[in-house]
Amino acid sequence: MNREKYSIYSKGKIGSLVLKNRLVRSATCDYQATEDGRITPQILELYKNLSAGGVGMIITGLLGVSSKGIGTKGQLCLYNDTYIEELTKLTKIVHETNHDTPIIAQLCHPGRQITQEHNSADCIAPSAVDSPILIKKAKEMSTLDIHSVISDFVNAIVRAKDANFDGVELHAAHGYLLSSFLSPYTNKRKDEYGGNVIRRTKIIREIINQAREKVGKFPILIKMNCDDHVPGGISKDNFKELATEITSTGVDAIELSGAMWDSLAFTEDFLGFLPVPIPESRTHIDSVEKQSYYYNYTKDLNLSIPIILVGGHRDIEHMEVIVKSGQVDFLSLSRPLICEPELPNRWLQGIGSKKSGCLSCNACMLFKDSFSCAFRRLHLNRREFETNLEQGWRAVFK
Ligand SMILES: Cc1cc2nc3c(=O)[nH]c(=O)nc-3n(C[C@H](O)[C@H](O)[C@H](O)COP(=O)(O)O)c2cc1C
């Protein structure tokens, strides 16, 4: 059944951008960049396939805004002008493949979440809070450090515009640096950058204000947590006040996600889901109830800017109900588009299952050298893949 008339396939707006549908590719690091964070043919191929697959807008994997803030092996960078020409190749291939697919650069500093392989990076945070799992205790940032990070983000926004991106997204979710300012769990500062919600969001407001002077109305989105899933962090009780304050900073849209690395130290009982590495990407999404796992946080949210909801969208019929509810404007997907970059067009044309082929197994995070869906790599031909989708992967692989 063709789904042209579905709300999901109606146009939507984010700032000055017009999206052909309500499906967004959520930021997904593909670990395919060169050692110094530059474009490779594999990355160009990946984004070409995403653009050809019909998604309404693409958000890149995280891009490093500072040479001392590289947290992930194989990530792309944007911390100096030499990256502009590189990244222009990426925006060009997306626009050439589908002129109506905007591409947004996600900008990130890892803050306190540094891995072993990047232990020389600046491990910084608003406060030096102990972590049950991180390898290093973060250094508390001075006011000067904060001003320097603000400049890094502003300069990266200007470079993203120069590289023909259609906008940027500030990565202020999942425990990374900007996220750690927003969260009362990691921000214990007593100065103007910590304390109440206005002061915890000051860093975002300053980035936006300074950026606006240089890039005008260039779309600036933000990804933030609606729940940190740690005691004393952002939660259902306090996130609406935070989201309202973030809206007033002048961002063009908010993408809602949740969790941080420290969440892993807590039990399934406390979390309400199985703690797995990269806890924002939950596993065992084996029922409709477990899908779209932050949807209930959007009830009565009433923000004046578009809401993009990420996390566990797997069934187009269920997703249509969510978009029709009007509580959410866009749905963003990560793992389903690793599995099937062609998914938006497949669903639109009514080919195959109403479900995504993604098992939410997270094996895509393991095979970093040849980033792809582990199950598609079994070299099944298209017909076998469709048949398996219809029967349900679990039935085939158990
Ligand atoms: C391989 C992989 C890489 C990811 N990289 C990023 C990233 O760079 N930035 C980000 O904000 N989220 C990242 N995420 C999280 C996703 O954007 C998304 O929030 C999460 O996977 C839940 O959505 P899903 O159920 O559609 O996968 C990544 C997820 C995966 C699986």
What features would you describe in this structure?
The chain has an eight-stranded parallel β-barrel with strand order 3-4-6-9-10-11-12-13, surrounded by four helices. A two-stranded antiparallel sheet has the order 1-2. A two-stranded parallel sheet has the order 7-8. It is built from 13 helices and 13 strands. The longest helix has 20 residues, at 143-162. With 398 residues, the protein is an alpha/beta fold. Helix 1 (41-52) runs parallel beside helix 2 and helix 3 (143-162) packs parallel to helix 6. The radius of gyration is 20 Å and the shape is globular. The protein has a single domain (7-397), classed as Alpha-Beta Barrel (TIM Barrel). It has helices at 41-52, 82-97, 143-162, 177-182, 197-200, 202-215, 239-247, 268-271, 316-325, 335-339, 343-349, 382-391, 393-397; strands at 12-14, 17-19, 23-25, 57-64, 76-77, 103-108, 124-125, 139-140, 167-172, 220-227, 253-258, 307-310, 330-333. Helix 9 (316-325) links the parallel strand 12 (307-310) and strand 13 (330-333). The structure holds flavin mononucleotide (FMN). Flavin mononucleotide binds at residues 26-29, 61-62, 106, 171, 173, 223, 257, 280-281, 310-313, 333-336, 364-365.
Element layout with pairings:
Blueprint: E1 12-14, E2 17-19, E3 23-25, H1 41-52, E4 57-64, E5 76-77, H2 82-97, E6 103-108, E7 124-125, E8 139-140, H3 143-162, E9 167-172, H4 177-182, H5 197-200, H6 202-215, E10 220-227, H7 239-247, E11 253-258, H8 268-271, E12 307-310, H9 316-325, E13 330-333, H10 335-339, H11 343-349, H12 382-391, H13 393-397
Helix pairs in contact: 1-2, 3-6
Bound molecules: flavin mononucleotide (FMN).
Flavin mononucleotide is lined by residues 26-29, 61-62, 106, 171, 173, 223, 257, 280-281, 310-313, 333-336, 364-365.
